[in-house]
Amino acid sequence: MDLGIRGRRAIVCASSKGLGRGVAEKLAEAGVDLTLNARTESTLRATADEIARKYNVKVQIVAEDVTTEVGRQALLKAEPEPDILINNAGGPPPGAWSDWGEAEWTSALNNNMLTPIFLMNAILPGMIARKWGRVVNITSSSVKAPIAQLGLSNSARAGLTGFVAGTARQVARHGVIINNLLPGSHDTDRTKGFLEKAAATQNISVEEARAEAYRKNPAGRYGTSEEFGAAAAFLCSQYSGFIVGQNILLDGGAYNSTMG
Ligand code: NAP
């Protein structure tokens, strides 16, 4: 399927690895020129080179921390008029509700709520003026069903979800479409780290911990970055203009409900 976005330009935050990279690959496959971002320049450059070679699109990199004002300004300087914005950053650390003080809360709110809001605030006016734009925020299934040890994520991402719910409905009439994608467990470095911790706690191998986690999911596995990227790319396509302010769960059916 031709997504109708060949030649468009995208900023993909936090995209040298994992879900962000999955999105970057699928946008590139659709012919979108990319501005990729991550903090570690070497892995970011390697990802950019690989994607540019494979899909024959223009790829530039901004090796900065997107959760800082300096990082965001560098991204906007490199790509001042993106047609597509993918908001993403690292997730907050796990812990118990009683573990976190002001510093941890401020950091989680900054990284997973305010950073995507500040980028939208900077980029939406241009999209509105050009009468076309797509924004996908990578949030988490924790917005729909809390994950006990990820209280910082549950909370900060719920704040972002509230902002998007109101804002998406104000900008849609200008051809600017904002949605959230909610990953359940996907095979990335982040979940590999969680499985390693679970294995150590239970005194089992990482492969046993993985098999146990897979068994609990109705799909019998974790999701892939490729599947995630394809869903995001569709939300950035010419055909997503009537999907407004939605929270789309990609979790293999892990959230148990009859509807919604
Ligand atoms: P990942 O595999 O660890 O990849 C994270 C990517 O983001 C890397 O490219 C990393 O590169 C970059 N990054 C991290 N912090 C950054 C920052 N401050 N500024 C710029 N780039 C940054 O993680 P993932 O699994 O793809 O997860 C992506 C997001 O989805 C996270 O917020 C995570 O909590 C959320 N999520 C993931 C899952 C899952 O199952 N994977 C489920 C629910 C939610 P550098 O380290 O070089 O910066």
Q: Can you give me a brief rundown of this structure?
A:
The protein has helices at 18-29, 41-55, 69-78, 102-130, 151-171, 189-202, 206-216, 225-235, and strands at residues 9-12, 33-38, 59-63, 84-87, 133-138, 176-183, 247-250.
- Kindly state the percentage of residues in helix: 40-55%
Report the major sheet.
Answer: 7 strands, parallel
Number of helical segments with 4 or more residues: 8
Q: Give the helices and strands as they follow along the chain.
A: EHEHEHEHEHEHHHE
The coarse silhouette is globular
Structural class: alpha/beta
Give the radius of gyration: 18 Å
Total strand segments? 7
* End-to-end distance: 27 Å
Q: How would you describe this protein?
A:
It contains eight helices and seven strands; from the N terminus they run E-H-E-H-E-H-E-H-E-H-E-H-H-H-E. By secondary structure, it is α/β, with parallel strands linked by helices. It has a seven-stranded parallel sheet with strand order 3-2-1-4-5-6-7, with helices on both faces. Strand 1 (9-12), helix 1 (18-29) and strand 2 form a beta-alpha-beta unit. Helix 1 (18-29) packs parallel to helix 2, helix 4 packs parallel to helix 5 and helix 6 crosses helix 7. It is globular, with a radius of gyration of 18 Å. It starts with 8 loop residues before the first strand and ends in a 10-residue tail after the last strand. The model has no long low-confidence stretch (mean pLDDT 97). NADP nicotinamide-adenine-dinucleotide phosphate (NAP) binds next to helix 1, strand 2 and helix 6.
